[in-house]
């Protein structure tokens, strides 16, 4: 087993766990790290690895929000102390909205995933989307500074809200560097969703989106060596642990802060990505 690849996988897992949930683009950060410390593996494995380690990040959401995600409840009555199993209709409606929001990326983004990766996974495209959405964060937060949010709970989302947020996720699915969380949060803020509700819906929306992305990558990669399996497992485990911490940090941070700091960070990162792309 190549210990150097294991160490690199730990670093990639940390980067994925932080940047998948903060709206600062996991793609932009992983591009920079790949430029200087790429895994010593075939290109096909690396392409698959960078997507599949997101499974660890997904499990972090499931762990932290299990009660908000699992729709089966034990319903107790005065006659029946033990209760019976039943469906929580609020959670079922939430999942329906998540599915609706997933449709644009699944229908349009899925079939063209390989095309857009081949033509837009480059430093210029990544940097442009980093900077563009960084500016959008600042503009939208400035516009919302004197406005009250229209929606303060995911339960109060309309199906129209879900469709609009899903269209923003489509942008992220097509153009690397946009940041899936960044795009969906921007879309939610623009239509009057509160910061905490925007972030939570983004977490929930990630579950089918990232599972789908993982399946798309795995369809082209069917065989792992023992070393490759170990590298992938380490990346997923680390991304899981770090994601738990990153999600908790973000939810505490946005209770008293806006997203403008992330916007400025994205602009700076975009400039760095352009510089690195020009030099290598």
Automatic annotation (TrEMBL):
Keyword tags: Antibiotic resistance, Cell membrane, Cell shape, Cell wall biogenesis/degradation, Hydrolase, Membrane, Peptidoglycan synthesis, Transmembrane, Transmembrane helix
Signal peptide feature range: none
GO annotation terms (biological process): cell wall organization; peptidoglycan biosynthetic process; regulation of cell shape; response to antibiotic
Highest taxon in the source lineage: Bacteria
Membrane topology field: Multi-pass membrane protein
E.C. no: 3.6.1.27
Pfam families per the UniProt record, alphabetical: BacA
Cellular compartment(s): Cell membrane
Sequence intervals crossing the membrane: 44-66, 94-112, 118-140, 198-218, 230-251, 263-279
GO cellular component: plasma membrane
UniProt protein name: Undecaprenyl-diphosphatase
Species per Swiss-Prot/TrEMBL record: Pseudoramibacter porci
């Amino acid at each position: 087993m190549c210990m150097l690849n294991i160490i690199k996988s730990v670093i990639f897992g940390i980067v994925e766990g932080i940047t998948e949930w903060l709206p600062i683009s996991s793609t932009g950060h992983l591009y920079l790290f790949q430029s200087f410390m790429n895994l010593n593996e075939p290109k096909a494995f690396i392409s698959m690895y960078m997507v599949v380690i997101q499974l660890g990040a997904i499990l972090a959401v499931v762990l932290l929000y299990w009660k908000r995600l699992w729709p089966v409840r034990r319903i107790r009555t005065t006659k029946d102390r033990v209760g019976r199993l039943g469906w929580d209709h609020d959670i079922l409606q939430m999942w329906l909205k998540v599915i609706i929001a997933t449709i644009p990326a699944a229908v349009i983004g899925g079939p063209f995933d390989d095309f857009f990766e081949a033509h837009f996974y480059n430093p210029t495209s990544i940097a442009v989307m980093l900077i563009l959405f960084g500016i959008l964060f600042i503009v939208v937060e400035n516009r919302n500074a004197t406005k009250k949010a229209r929606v303060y709970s995911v339960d109060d989302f309309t199906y129209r809200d879900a469709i609009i947020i899903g269209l923003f996720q489509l942008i992220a699915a097509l153009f690397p560097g946009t940041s899936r969380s960044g795009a969906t949060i921007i879309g939610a803020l623009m239509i009057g969703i509160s910061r905490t509700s925007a972030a939570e819906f983004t977490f929930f929306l990630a579950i089918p989106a990232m599972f789908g992305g993982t399946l798309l990558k795995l369809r082209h990669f069917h065989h792992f060596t023992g070393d490759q399996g170990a590298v992938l497992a380490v990346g997923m485990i680390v991304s899981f642990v770090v994601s738990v911490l990153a999600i908790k940090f973000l939810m505490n941070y946005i209770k008293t802060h806006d997203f403008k700091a992330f916007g400025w960070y994205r602009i700076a990162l975009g400039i760095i990505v352009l510089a690195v792309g020009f030099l290598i």
